[in-house]
Amino acid sequence: MTEVELREGLVEIGDSSFRWCNHSIMNINIPNSLRRIKYCAFSHSHRTPIRLHDSIERIGYSAFAGCIFTNFRVPPLITVISDGISGCKSILSIELPENVTDIGDFAFIYCYCLRNVALPPRAVFGDFIFIGIGTQGSGTMTDLQRMFGLKAEIISELQHRFVGLPIHSLIYYQTYNQLLILRKNSLN
Length: 188
Description:
By secondary structure, this protein is of the alpha/beta class. The chain is built from 3 helices and 11 strands, in the order E-E-E-E-E-E-E-E-E-E-E-H-H-H. The strands form 4 sheets. Strands 2-4-5 form a 3-stranded parallel sheet, with no helix packed on it.
């Protein structure tokens, strides 16, 4: 299955609906009527960026876990991020709405390439949101861990580097090297 067309009127995509489609889904039409994406709905199935409209109210646990895409935009009605996009090993940037209040323990776990995310200043963070495999000893670290080190340093940097700018306009314009330059300049 490479293409999915969902009809207008659909309100919810159920648990594991498209789970383990072997990253074969290249195109999906999300209707404006959709409000909820449930547990593991697209886990390990999607290969290209997915455009979620602003009326989506809930993204379930592991809904997009293990998908292959580089950018992800969380709709503005979402206030809690669990681990809907964990394990997206190729994701570079995530756009979070300013009204996110809670980012769960495993929100970005195993997102090794994640380099660009503006963290809402009032959000509460789980303990393991940025970890990769082997962070206690040898093994793979996430790019954010390599750049900033500890979770507290990552959060501080990502909450304050965009102060005064609207969150939705921040993502996608920054490259890895620009992020390092910003960090270096902020230390001077």
